[in-house]
Amino acid sequence: MRVHLVNPSDNSFGTAVITPRWLFVLAAATPTAVGDPILVDESLEQIVPETIQPGDVVGISVHTGNALRGYAVGRMARARGAWVVYGGIHATLFPDEAIERGEAHAVVKGDGDLAWPKVVTDCLAGKPEKIYEGGRIEGSEFLAARWDLMDPRKYMWASVQTIRGCPKHCSFCSVWRTDGQKPRQRKFQSVVDEIIALRRLGFCFIALADDNFYPVTFTDLRLAREQGNTAKFDELTAIRNDRLALMEELAKLPKDMVFFTQMTMEAGEDSSFLDAMCKANIKGALVGVEAVTPEGLKAVYKDWNYSGEALAKQLQTIKQHGVHVLGSFIFGLPTDKPSTFDATVAMALKAGITFAQFVMMTPFPGTVDFGRWEKEQSQHVTMVGDVPITRYWMIPAESRPKMYTPHPTMSSDEIRQRTQQVWDKFYGWGPIWKRSACCPNITSRIAFIFLSKLYRQMYANTGISTDSARRKKSRRWARWTARQCKRLFQAKPMPGLEGPKWEIGLPAFGRGAFEGVAGSNVSGPFSVLPGK
Ligand code: B12
Ligand code: SF4
């Protein structure tokens, strides 16, 4: 009997940009007594059905974008006699769907670190429960990933999580409702150990897979002080200090290490935090700009973000402190006009951000936007074939609309084409070449150009290449480019790299074994989740 963990994907490129972290964390949570799990990342290659035998346990992670593929893998595994278990954000929100469409024996809602050993044990005893409440575990309980099970030749960047949860409440984002608004920080010693293990393997580029790396702002601290809330102030200060302590340790690592994270643009007001990031080699951050106008920001409950000139200045400040910005923008907001597209790309170029992504408004389950839309649709349900549009992920890719929520003045096609033009302008050869001047030498400049083009190819999925011949060509191109990029990110392994000796105990992997107690200290159920 074997445990398989499958990261489903319709697109396999042979090489992937970032490691899907959950695979290696659940591998760490797999009871040692069943042996090492078989890890399948379909963004590299598709699963081979014959590897699954009757009695095996197959764990599948689904987010909304890959749910359909995930369910197909689950049905295939069940038909071959395996125990099928789903987890991940989409299964957390729609456990019944995973049971019906994905033929799940069991679904884990929330964090899998502590729940997984119990699920495996129950499956092996032939008695899995239908639903396991993984809950939101404490940061100190997050498991370190089993990087020893990864093929380092296949990935450009590894991913390490330092914090989960986000105190904000953006209308298009589900993180604050699923992962919670309380930042859950992992022990920084455990983070550092994991990064050292990755550097030994030859990884020097690491994505910090955090919801929000800057969870405590100056405004939060000021408000707590003004309200005389000493307990809150101390709690926030402790979180901030822990972030700084982590960065102090990262700064001691080999100088060729490069980190990338995600945070809000409020970090631009916090020079000491930015300087600590720069010293720690956190060279870039995805910053949710979303919209460049005050109306647009209000529409997504993000009116604390900057707009206009102040926005350009804030982003430039982050860059001046040595942290490159990947700006994330949303198109298709009700406040968008045709002129918004040009204004956005002009702002992105003016602010000097190094990378940008321009995504089309998508109502993701679990968000405020989704809840509102589902309520509106309950009066007159729009159907696509036999699927209600509010279950768009169940529509086969070829007949899936490119936008789900109608815009008051622009058609979906117009928004899609204008979005595509914005990608083309931002990632034209001229602007890329200009931006590549930030690189210290010609090799890194070439790497930058390749990566810019690859990023555009992989993420500018606004549906322009809809015919299969163009899609095939585009995938071939991405496969080739991904191979070249991988080489540029490779570093010489440092097997002898020593790490600090900590005086605290850290969560070890292989826990849970067969005693079946590992799930017992899992915290509360996901009572706040909508959309079920
Ligand atoms: C890092 C990250 C990325 C990175 C790296 C992705 C990668 N290769 O890993 C990048 C920047 C590339 C990225 C891209 C995108 N992302 Co993203 N990403 C994240 C982020 C911040 C962290 C994910 C992570 O690694 N967490 C660490 C691991 C350990 O946690 P985990 O995956 O949640 O797994 C735990 C549990 O869920 C559970 N679990 C998970 N799987 C399974 C399976 C089983 C069997 C079991 C038992 C348990 C279990 O156990 C795990 C351990 O506790 C999440 C936010 C979040 N809070 O999830 C968004 C998130 C997953 N991303 C999201 C989105 C929308 C995207 C994009 C579509 C954005 C875009 N518009 O382009 C793309 C899609 C890319 C793709 N094709 O997959 C959404 C998904 C929403 C949804 N309903 O599907 C999230 C939730 C953020 C959000 N704003 O809502 N992303
Ligand atoms: S979009 Fe970013 S800032 Fe807003 S709630 Fe989600 S993680 Fe937090």
Describe the fold and architecture.
The chain has 532 residues and is of the alpha/beta class. The chain is 39% helix and 15% strand. The protein contains 18 helices and 17 strands. It starts with a strand and ends in a 43-residue tail after the last helix. The protein is globular. The strands form 4 sheets. Strands 2-8-11-12-13-14-15 form a 7-stranded parallel β-sheet. The chain binds cobalamin and iron/sulfur cluster. Iron/sulfur cluster binds next to helix 6.
How is this fold's topology laid out?
Blueprint (H helix, E strand, L loop, with lengths): L2 E5 L8 E3 L2 H9 L8 E4 L15 E5 L5 H13 L3 E5 L1 H5 L1 H6 L5 E5 L4 H10 L6 E5 L19 E6 L2 E2 L10 H4 L5 E2 L2 H14 L3 E4 L9 H9 L3 H21 L7 E6 L7 H9 L2 E9 L3 H6 L8 H13 L3 E8 L6 H13 L4 E6 L7 H12 L3 E2 L2 E2 L23 H15 L2 H7 L6 H18 L8 H22 L43
Parallel strand pairs: 1-3, 1-4, 2-8, 4-5, 5-6, 6-7, 8-11, 11-12, 12-13, 13-14, 14-15
Antiparallel strand pairs: 9-10, 16-17
Distinct ligands, ions and cofactors found in the model: cobalamin, iron/sulfur cluster
Beta-strand percent range: 5-15%
Strand order of the largest sheet: 2-8-11-12-13-14-15
Cα Rg:
23 Å
Helix content estimate:
25-40%
For the residues shown, what is the average pLDDT? 89
Number of strands: 17
